[in-house]
Amino acid sequence: MKKMTKVSLAVVVLLVTSIIAAGTVWGSNALRKIDAVANDNIKIYYNGDLANLTDTDGSKISPVIINGRTYLPLRAMSELLGIDIEWDGTTQSIYLSTDSTPSNTGTPKPQTTPAPSTETSKPSKNKGTMDDPISIGDTFYWSAKEKYIDTNVSADYSFTLLDVKPMTIDEIKDLGFNVTSNNEKFDYVMITAKVTVSNAKVESGEVYPELAFAVDIWGTKTPSGYSVIGGTDYGFDGSLNRSFSEVVKGSDGLTKKLKAGEVGNYSYTGKAIIPLTKGEENYLVITKGYSFDYNDRFVYFRLK
């Protein structure tokens, strides 16, 4: 995953003409004239090296001055800084991403519930096993090909446990859930996690992405051998399930199915209620997919 370079977006966001195809129809209320001056004398240095900003045809691009402010071409700067960029002419949208895989599904990407900053998250050096669980803030990556109903689907995944907070029975009830288990044996936490689904594909027909590509929470396990199966990642605002559902909605508010031949890329952040065995160290357990051998199917995350 690429790291976003700290550059003011006000500097790079305006000049997008090099990525917009000729003939695109703009709404008349979105057009306005501006006075601009190109300055060929301005030099751009990146990490001490002189940058040569060029258009897609190789021609030189110069910074432009508008009302005393300097603006730089978006595509040239994104390539220089290692930021992925996509233009969707249908929705008049520009997508910037620090992920190595672009997010082109042909529809605007609604924002999910804000989550703690992931600027410090990094690929985990841990294996994700019971003996070597993933630490909070680290990211675990894997790929899977699964059978979904009557077709095969495949994708690359990542899961980052961002935050863990204790949760009371009253707080769970306030979300609309009844707690019927023996509370003398169980505690509960609310986790916040970030999930990415990249290169999502379906072999035939069409599927709802949030059903075919959802990451399953198995439950929790302890090093001493206790297990609690289950976790509630649905049914309340900000849950992982609802966050995924929001990401795959189109501008009309309806879920966009992923069809054979299309590639889906999704990123969302959400919460889940997780039961714990009291008095024990507990690890969160998720499944990579049921096509894996049983011993390689589960990924373990530290909860503290």
TrEMBL record:
Annotated Copper amine oxidase-like N-terminal domain residues: 60-101
Biased composition (Polar residues): 96-127
Pfam family, one: Cu_amine_oxidN1
Disordered as annotated region, ranges: 96-131
Top-level taxon: Bacteria
Classification via InterPro entries: Cu_amine_oxidase-like_N, Mao_N_sf
Name of protein: Copper amine oxidase-like domain-containing protein
